[in-house]
Amino acid sequence: MGSGGELGARAPQARSSKKVYLRFRIPYYTQWGQSLAISGSDSTLGNWNVEQSRKMTPVHEGDSLVWELLIAVPDNFETQYKYCLVDAGKLDLIKSEAGSRRFLTIPQGVEDEAIIDVHDSWQDGSSPDSLFTKGAFGKVIFGKGSEQKVKEIAVETSPFATDFSVHESVAVRFRVNCSRLESGQSVYVTGSASSLSKWVNEEAVPLHRVAGSLWQADVVIRRSELPLKYRYFLRNKAGDVMPELGADRSLNLVPAGRPSALVIVTDGYFRSRPWKGTGVAVPVFSLRSAEDVGCGEFLDLKLLVDLAVRCGMRLVQLLPINDTSVNMMWWDSYPYSSLSVFALHPMYLRLQALSKKLPEDIKEEIEDWREKLDLKEVDYEATMKAKLTIARKVFELEKDEVFSSPSFQQYFDENQGWLKPYAAFCFLRDLFGTADHSEWGRYSSFTSDKLDRLVSPTSDHYKAIAFCYYLQYQLHTQMTEAAEYARANRVVLKGDLPIGVDRNSVDTWVSPALFRMNTSTGAPPDAFDKQGQNWGFPIYNWDEMAKDNYAWWRARLTQLSKYFSAFRIDHVLGFFRIWELPDHAVIGLTGRFRPSIPISAEELEKEGIWDFNRLTEPYVRCHLLKEKFGGKWIEIANKYFDETQHLCYKFKEEYNTEKKIAAALKVGEDAPEQLVKEANETRKRLLELFQEVVLLKDEENPRMFYPRYGIWETASFCELDDHSKNVLKDKYEDYFYRRQENLWRDNALKTLRVLVNSSDMLACGEDLGMVPACVAPVLEELGVLGLRVQRMPSGLRSYQEFGIPSEYEYMTVCAASCHDTSTLREWWEEDEQIRGRYFKDVLGFSGTAPDKCDVHITHTILQQHLESPSVWAIFPLQDFMALREEYTKRPAKEERINDPSNSKHYWRFRVHVTLEKLLHDRELIITIREMNVNSGRAGLTDFSQLPAPEYSDTWNKDQIDANNSYEDATIVDSCHAPENGSSSVTGNGIRDHRIRV
C-alpha cells in the first residue's frame, strides 16, 4: 500500500465546490466545568486563538467518554491543529496537549459530503514517549535510525483515489509516532483484516515516515471485518521483529450516524519499554587533557564523548559556557553571571587549533604556558592572560585570511545582531576600565547610531573590535566541532541556561527595558544557604518581554541549540516566581516573590492587626542589643542607632540599609586579623538586627505587605501576643503555600512554554528549593524533566530525609550529587550521624558506616540510582571516578565545584587525571559499562553495539577478566548465553554479560 504523505507535496489548487465533513474524536476524561476544544491554523478552527477555537461535545460510549466535533470543510482543506482543555463556559485555556502540532490534509478523490473520521489520542507531556520527539533523541540518540528521507508520495498514487466509492470498504490511514529506531529498522502494521495480512508479519503493511517521528500507511478495510484488531511492530533488514508492548489495538466505526468514507487513526506512540540513559556532568573548565592550557577546552569534549561512549553513556552535561568577563579577574570564574548570553567564553579556546601554520616561536610559547598552568586548580586570571595573549598574536598573522573566508562571512552574517554589540561592549569595558556601563558617559545609553560608529571599520580602534569577532568565530568553530562529534557518536550534549545575566552585561546595556535594574535576584533560605542567596542579577521585566513574544529568550534558545540538543533550565522556579530583593540588600533573607499577591492592610485590620510600623521596621530593643553585643551594647547603640523611645532603637540614616552596614564595616585586606574578625562579627549581628522584621512593605504601595521568610525565628514575632502570632502565621502560610498557585502557574505557562517551544532541545528543569505545588503539573504538561538529588527530597516526599531512587518518576533526572553540592565522598565525611542513617535506612546495610565512602559504597549508591525509573541518571565525573580507589587519594573537599553559601566562591576545580588516562583505564570503563548494562541504561536495544574500550598492549583478556570480578555477583549473558551459564567473551576481549547482584 502507498503512503499518503501529501502535506507539503500537494500543489496549490483552486478552491473546490465539494464539501466534506470532518468528525474529530478523542477519548478524554474531564472534570466538572471543563471541555475539550480544537484550535488550529485555519479560520474554521480559530487561527490559533483559543477563544475562537471549536468546542467539542462529550459522548458516552460504554465506560469511555469520547469528545466529538463535526465540521464542514472544502475537499482541499488542510490545517494544523491541537486539542485544548478549556473552561466550558468562557473557553479560557486550562492546558494544551503536548508535542508537535498535528496536521491534516484531505486526500483527493473523496466524494462530495463524505464523512472523514479523525480518531486521535491526547498527546500528554508526561508521556515517556513524548520525549522522543525532541532532537536529543530523534536527531542524536536514535539519529542513525532516522536517516531515511521523508518519503513524499504523489497524491494520485494513493489507493484512496479509487476506493472511496466502494461502500463495502472503508479507507483507513494508520498513523503512529516512532522515533526509537535503530539503524535499518522500519515500522509495520498487522492485524485481523485480510488487508493487514491477518497477523502474518512477513506480509504486514509497511509505514512510511511523513513528518518527524510520524509514520503513516493507507489501507482499505472491508466493513465486514470490523471491528478490527491490530498492532505495530519494528523489523530490521535482517528480518528481526520487535513487537510493541501491551494489548492489541482496536478500531471500529462510529456506532451512530452516517458511516465514514475514511478513518484517520493517530495512535499516539509506538509502545515499547521505557528508555533510560546515563550521563556524566562536568564543567568544561574542570577537564584536563594533554593539550589544554590552564583549564579544560571545547575540543576536550571530544575525548569526554569518547569516554562516555565506551562506558555506555549517552549524555554529557556542562555548566554554562558563555563569556563572563565582567570584572576581568577571578570573580568572573562564576559561570552563571553572563557578560553576554550569546558570546562564548575565551578561556575555552584551544590555542593550538587557531591555525594549521603556527610559527615555531608561538608553538613554544603555548607549550611554556601549558606547562606553567598545569596546576592542581584553575588559575583563572593567568589562563585568561595566556589565551588572549596568544590569540592576539595569531590574529595579527591571520586576520585577513580568516576574515575573507566564506565560513567567517557566513558566521558574521548569522550572528552580527549580537556580535557587534558584544564587541563594542568589550572595547568600552577595556577603555573605561569597568563593565558598569552607567559610568561610560555618552555611551552609558545604547543606540544603534552609537553602535555603528563604535564598530565602523574606519575607526581608530577597529582592530580591538575585529579581534572580538575573530575570537568568537574561533570559539564557535571549536565548539561546533565538539558538538558535531558528539552527535556523530550519538551522545547528547546538554547545556545550561542561567536564570540571570550580570547587571553590567551587554544585554542590560542594549535592552535595559527588559530588566528591573533597581532590584536583584536571589533565592529564599534553603538547604544551600540558611540566609537565602543574593545573586545580584536584575529581575526580568516579563511584561516588556511579552510585547515581542519573548524575542530575547527565543534568540537565546536558538543560539544554545546550535551546540546542544538538551539543556538544563537553571532555577526553573524563577519562571513561576522569582525571589526579588531590593537593590540595597546584601543577603537573600528579606526578599519577596514576584509576581505574588501581597497581604493588604485591610486583611490585617479585619483581624485586629494595625501596628504596621512595629511589624515592618527592624525590631531593636535594649535586651536584644545586650544579647548580641554583651558589654559593648551601649557603644554599638550610640554609634549605629537613635533611641526613638525608652529602650527602643532605630538605625541611623547612614546605616539604614544592608549595603550601608556592610560598607561601614568593610576593612582592608591587610588589616590585622583581630580587627577583621571583630568587624565581621559586628556586621553579622547588625544585619541580624536589621532583619528583625515580620512584614516587608511594598515599595510602590505602603498598604501592601509581604511576610518575611521564617517570621517565627525573629524576636519581633516571638514577642507578639498570641492572637497576633496566630493571624500572622496563617497569613504567612497562605502567602507562601496557597494564594499564589494559580498566579504562578499561569506565569510559568506563558514564559516556559516559549522556552520549550523555541527549539527541539530536551528541557530539564532544576526544581530544587522551596517548590510550589503548581510546579510539578506545569513541568509535566510542558514535558520538562524535573531534578531529583537524593539528599534534597522534593515534591510529595520532601518530608523524607533522603530521596528513594526507586520511587522517582520517569520524567526526572536523578543524581546522587551535583555541582552545587559536595561530592559523594565529601558528603559521606561531613556528618557521622547522617551517613549512619543513610547507610542503614537507604543502603540497607547493618553495622557501623565506614568513615570513608569507599569503592563498594560508591558502587552501591550509583547502582541504586541507575536502577531508578528516572529517564536519565546523571552523575558528576568525580562520583564516577570514586569507583576506582586510585582516584580517591585526593582530599574529598578539593573536588567540590561550588559552595552556594559563599557569594565569592572561586570556581576553579580541575580533575586531577587527564582524559587520555581515563580513556585507557579499562577497569573504570568496564565497571561503569557493566553498571549501565545491568540497569538497562546502555542506551541501545542491542548491547553488542557498544564499542569496546581500548587497552594497553600489556593487558590481555585474562587480566581483564581477573580484574573485573565482583563479590556476590551472578553473571548472566545479556545476548548469547552459553549453555553452561558461564560468561562469554567477545572477539575484543570484552565479557558479553550482565551482572546481577
Automatic annotation (TrEMBL):
Residues 14-124, 164-277 form the CBM20 domain. Gene3D superfamilies: Glycosidases, Immunoglobulins. InterPro entries: Carb-bd-like_fold, CBM20, GH, Glyco_hydro_77, Ig-like_fold. GO terms for molecular function: 4-alpha-glucanotransferase activity. Belongs to the disproportionating enzyme family. It is found in: Cytoplasm. Keywords: Carbohydrate metabolism, Cytoplasm, Glycosyltransferase, Transferase. This is 4-alpha-glucanotransferase. It holds the Pfam family Glyco_hydro_77. It comes from the Eukaryota. Residues 977-997 are annotated as: Disordered. Its EC number is 2.4.1.25. Its main location: cytoplasm. GO terms for cellular component: cytoplasm. It comes from Riccia sorocarpa. SMART domains: CBM_2. It catalyses: Transfers a segment of a (1->4)-alpha-D-glucan to a new position in an acceptor, which may be glucose or a (1->4)-alpha-D-glucan. The keyword Translocase does not apply.
